[in-house]
Write a structure and sequence with these properties.
ten-stranded mixed β-sheet, 329 residues, globular, 8 helices, alpha/beta, 19% strand
C-alpha cells in the first residue's frame, strides 16, 4: 500500500525530500560516531586500558591484585581535555571546591553526554589556573607530562581545596597515567575523587590504591542508548565494595528509562551490600537535557524510582547536577 502523502505529486515530492534529509542527517551522525571511535582506537597507545584485550571483565577477583604504591609503573604523559577549579556538583561531594582534571577520549556515546568535546582525543588541553570563567589561561599540546599536571593542580588549588577530581571522557582509559598522577598528588597531600562509567574493572584495579573516593555510573541501556556489560559492571562494583573506599553508585534518570533495568541494577547493589556489608549509596541523578535528551524526568517518575530502590537499599538519594544551577562547568 502507498502512503496518502504520495498520491499528489507535489506532496509526494515534499515527503520524499523530508525523508531524504532525515536519512542524510542520520547517516552523518552515525558516521561521526564511527570516525570518533576509530580515532580513539588509533590513539590507544596513549590509553593503555582501552587497548583491545586488556580488560577482562570475567576474570575472577583473585586472579589479579591492585598495584601497590611502591610498585606502580608510571606513564610519563597523558592526554587532557581541560583542568580548572569548580564546585563538585554531583553525588556525595556536592558543594566541595575541587580541581577538575578532565582526560580526553571515551569509548561510550551516551545519549545525554554533556561533554561531547572530550569524547575523542584533543590536540590541545585548556587550562584555567583558577575558577573556570572566561577564556583559559593556557592552551598546551597533548600529551602532557604528569609532573607538569601536578604543578598546575597545585597552582589551581591555591589553598582553596585539597580535593582533585579525575573525570572525562573516561579517565580509566588512561589508568596507568592516572595511577602515576594520583600517587604524586597524594604524596603532596591531595585527596582524589575518581568519576567513571563503572564498567572497566581491570583498569580500576590499577588506580584504586591512588584514589580516595569513587563515583561510578551504572549506564542503563535505555538511558544511554548503548548496551551494558552487566558482568563487568558487577565485577567493578564488587571491587568497590571490597575496597573500603568512600564510593557511590549513580544512575542518570531519563524520561524513557526502562524500570526493569533499574530494578536489575538495584538488585545487583543489594546483593553486594548483603555479601560485603558495605553500603554503596545510590544517587539518582535527573538528567540535565543535553545531546539527544531534551526533557528531564518527571517528579512522579523520580519519586517512584526512589521508593522502589529504598525498599532494597539503605541509602538512596536524588541529587541533580547542582553546579549547573550556579552556571559553573
Amino acid at each position: 500500500s502507498f502512503s496518502p502523502l504520495c498520491t499528489t505529486p507535489k506532496l509526494g515530492q515534499s515527503f520524499a525530500s523530508i525523508c531524504a534529509v532525515g536519512f542524510v542527517a542520520f547517516a552523518l551522525d552515525n558516521a561521526v560516531v564511527l570516525l570518533a571511535r576509530k580515532k580513539v582506537l588509533r590513539l590507544s597507545q596513549n590509553f593503555p586500558a582501552a587497548q583491545k584485550g586488556t580488560v577482562h571483565e570475567g576474570m575472577a577477583l583473585t586472579e589479579r591484585k591492585p598495584h601497590s604504591p611502591a610498585t606502580v609503573q608510571g606513564v610519563a604523559k597523558g592526554n587532557l581535555s581541560e583542568l580548572y577549579l569548580s564546585l563538585q556538583g554531583e553525588g556525595l561531594w556536592v558543594g566541595i571546591p575541587m580541581v577538575f582534571v578532565r582526560t580526553t577520549g571515551c569509548h561510550r556515546r551516551c545519549k545525554y553526554c554533556d561533554t561531547e568535546y572530550a569524547l575523542v582525543a584533543e590536540r590541545k588541553a585548556r587550562l584555567w589556573l583558577r575558577w573556570r570563567t572566561g577564556d583559559p589561561d593556557l592552551m598546551v599540546d597533548n600529551p602532557v607530562p604528569f609532573g607538569q599536571v601536578v604543578e598546575w593542580v597545585r597552582q589551581t588549588a591555591s589553598g582553596l581545596t585539597s580535593w582533585v577530581t579525575f573525570t572525562g571522557g573516561e579517565p580509566l582509559l588512561q589508568a596507568d597515567f592516572l595511577a602515576a598522577l594520583g600517587k604524586a598528588l597524594k604524596e603532596r597531600g591531595f585527596r582524589i575523587l575518581l568519576e567513571t562509567e563503572g564498567g572497566l574493572p581491570e583498569a580500576l584495579r590499577k588506580v584504586l590504591p591512588f584514589v580516595d573516593a569513587i563515583a561510578a555510573d551504572i549506564k542503563l541501556p535505555s538511558t544511554t542508548g548503548e548496551p551494558l556489560n552487566w558482568q563487568a559492571t558487577e565485577t567493578f562494583f564488587r571491587l568497590l565494595a571490597q575496597s573500603g573506599k568512600e564510593a557511590c553508585a549513580k544512575i542518570v534518570i531519563t524520561p524513557d528509562i526502562d524500570e526493569s533495568e533499574f530494578r536489575q541494577a538495584v538488585t545487583m547493589l543489594a546483593q553486594l551490600h548483603d555479601e560485603h556489608r558495605q553500603t554503596l549509596p545510590l544517587i539518582l541523578q535527573p538528567v540535565t537535557p543535553a545531546r539527544f535528551v531534551t526533557e528531564p524526568p518527571s517528579l512522579a517518575l523520580l519519586l517512584r524510582l526512589l521508593a522502589s530502590a529504598r525498599s532494597h537499599l539503605p541509602d538512596v538519594r536524588i541529587v541533580p547536577q547542582v553546579h549547573k544551577f550556579v552556571n559553573l562547568a
